[in-house]
Amino acid sequence: MLETLTIGTVAFDSARHLSLNLRLTKFLNPKSEYSWIILDNSPEGSSLCIKKENPDYFYLPRVETDFKGKGFESYQHGSGLNEIMQYVKSRYVLILDPDFYITRPNWINEVLNFLDEEKISIFGAPWHPNWFYKYRYFPCAHCLFLDLKNVEKESIDFCPEPDNSNKWNSKMRFFFKVLRQEKRCFIGTSFDTGVKLYRKYATKKVHLNICLVPSFRPYYGMSLIKKNMMKALDAVLPDELSLIPKVAGYFWTKTFADLGYFDAYSNGWEEFYWEGKPFGFHLRRFQTSKRKTVDEEIDLLKKSLRSFGLNSDG
């Protein structure tokens, strides 16, 4: 019998994080049929490579590419996801980062039923609003469900494209530079992994897409003077020049800690909700400014999962 869902993950020095994710997924979805394909891009000889032989997943070796320019890591990651897609046989696929942990019980059946009943083609976590230079209002490749009945598998290409850093003319850029706000000219200009999917499907109403809701506190940590200045600018500027997304309901200012769960937000992790309840969180291991050792991360992960009543040691 073919599984209903295939989970695809590109790993990079992620053995311990993936091991925890594999156990968590099995624990939360005891009655679901799924398979997991993991492609390991870890450097040869790394102590954090995943095992090639494991009944819980199908292993694929590192993808070698000839691309050597800017964004090599994203290109290699996208190439790995493209390789995984060649092995997908199920109707549904979930592209999942190794350090994105879904905490909702029975999430496989609930999400797939939702996609089928509501005729949703694409569902998942958007780029967190902190990453203002990425595209908005569309799921990204950190946690991305696709219904391959509606999204043609052969058309999917996860490799990035060159950034559109010249989106604004020199006068506009000079104006914002004087205000020390030149970064506004780079909102939505970074064409990272998954941007081709965004360009192809974001505006096609026949392919409905739904985003999880990130926890986001605008102007968090800013001084009062800077906060007021930024708020004033964002109030008068259009969405494409606003550091804060303007679509109502796109983010929620409550954090998991506000609801009595582990404070992932203050640890630099990204929190996401679905239907008003926590859905999962993303460590962003190689991006957060609050870098920790692997042991520290695993200990915090287990603590966070226990706050959801989940056994992370089984």
Q: Profile the largest sheet.
A: 7 strands, mixed
| Overall morphology | globular
Helix content: 25-40%
Q: Largest beta sheet: what is the strand line-up?
A: 3-2-1-4-7-6-8
Total domain count: 1
Top CATH class? Alpha Beta
Mean pLDDT: 88
Which stretches of 5+ consecutive residues score pLDDT under 50? Answer: none
State the total count of DSSP E strands. Answer: 11
- For the record, give the distance between the C-alpha atoms at the N and C termini, rounded to a whole number: 27 Å
Backbone structural class: alpha/beta
- Would you tell me which CATH topology applies? Spore Coat Polysaccharide Biosynthesis Protein SpsA, Chain A
Q: Would you summarize the structure shown here?
A:
This protein is α/β, with parallel strands linked by helices. The chain has helices at 15-28, 72-85, 107-118, 170-178, 195-201, 224-236, 294-307; strands at residues 5-11, 34-40, 58-60, 92-96, 100-102, 120-126, 139-147, 208-211, 213-214, 270-274, 277-282.
